[in-house]
Amino acid sequence: MRFLFSLSTFIFTILVAIGNPIDAQVLCLGGECANIPSEYQLLGNFAEPVFDRIYTNGFLRSMGDNAVLQNLNSNQSGGSKVERYRLGLGYTVSQGQEKARDFYYENSELRTLPKKGVAASPSLSFTVNLGEWLDGAFAKQWNLTTHFFPYEFGEANIPFVKIRNTDVRGRVFNYGAVLRYFPVDSGFSFGIGVFQTNQDLYLSSYDRRPTQFRIDGDKRRWIGQNDLFYQSRIVSGSLDLKYNYTIGFLSIIPGIGIVYNHGYTAIQANRFAAISTRENPDDFGSVPSAIGIRLATRHNHRSGFGYGSLGLNFSLGSYSLVTELMAGKEIQSINLSLQKQF
Predict the structure, then answer these.
(1) 139 occurs within a structural domain
(2) What is the DSSP letter of 79?
(3) How many Å separate Cα 53 from the centre of its chain?
(4) Distance of CA 249 to the CA centre of its chain
């Protein structure tokens, strides 16, 4: 066996004509690195298919908007005035319609990475009528609702996310506050809110068998480990208008709102794989060689969106079962919560 080891390190940055900068770092170890002809071919095979054609700006924006809408819906402020205090515990799911482009990067288990934005978490809310804290009739027309829930998750407790042969873990820590004004006997209410959306998602997978890829037209095979890290940090401000129509124990609450977002959504993908020789795509041992790839991109959120909402409140004494649907362009969120006034 030949043991011809060399070290070639390629560190370079490319700018995609449509989108944010993509940072691509590639480390090649072993004798086969001498047969990788140019930085251009390396970037063409690895960086562009993953981030230009899959994790596009539209997809990253959709993932961020889903997280924000889910956070807004988790607040559970509703449109029914609380006379003193209220506690609520609920679960919120959000999903977008915009998908990543078709993933034809079939050279590794990276094909299993998610292509559609989804956000979900439980939340705990607390509402107070400001008349309990401040004097005056005007203060009684205001409700303040806050919510939060730090949530650690894995594949076992997010059953709607199934990624084959991939370990999933993450953390959601969203919180916010909505100040809502109820004009006397009008049925309408006006809300103004501020929200912080924090999400981290880790995915890790390994190749079950060697798969084929090409370098400068030469067929190779590789086998290795894939890791992806997704993160969003977004501050949002919202305005909304709702109307409460009550029939007995049922309240129907339609509404409209707008939200402005400031923050970022970032993705980093890492892959380390052993590569075969140029002469024999099944030969991994005669010239042991490996490639490490790190790709990263980031979408800055400096925009907003509008949404409509429809809430249903089923009251039974001091308890209420509440569901609220929120929908923007290509994103939807639904919340189900149990609330108690006291």
Answers:
(1) yes
(2) S
(3) 18
(4) 36
Does the predicted model carry a pTM greater than 0.85?
Answer: no
Supply the range of the domain harboring residue 115. 7-341
The candidate with the shortest Cα–Cα distance to 122, out of 79, 157, 162, 166, is 157
CA angle 155, 161, 166 (to 5 degrees): 55
At 77 the pLDDT is 92
Q: Which residue has the higher pLDDT, 305 or 203?
A: 305
The answer to whether residue 2 sits within a structural domain is: no
CA angle, 79 then 316 then 83, to 5°: 45
Answer yes or no: is 67 within a domain.
Answer: yes
Question: Which residues 6+ apart lie within 8 Å of 266 measured at CB?
Answer: 230, 231, 232, 296, 297, 298, 299
Question: Which string of DSSP letters, residue by residue, matches 27-62?
Answer: EEEEGGGGG---HHHHHHHHHIIIIITTS-HHHHHH
What CATH code is carried by the domain that includes residue 225?
2.40.128
Say if 1 falls within a structural domain: no
- pLDDT for 58: 64
CB 110 within 8 A of CB 166: no
Q: Measuring CA to CA, which residue among 101, 108, 78, 100 is closest to residue 90?
A: 78
* Tokens standing for residue 215: 């370098």
Domain count, the chain: 1
Tens of pLDDT along 190-228?
Answer: 999 999 999 888 878 787 888 777 776 777 888 888 888
Pick the residue with more confidence: 53 or 230? Answer: 230
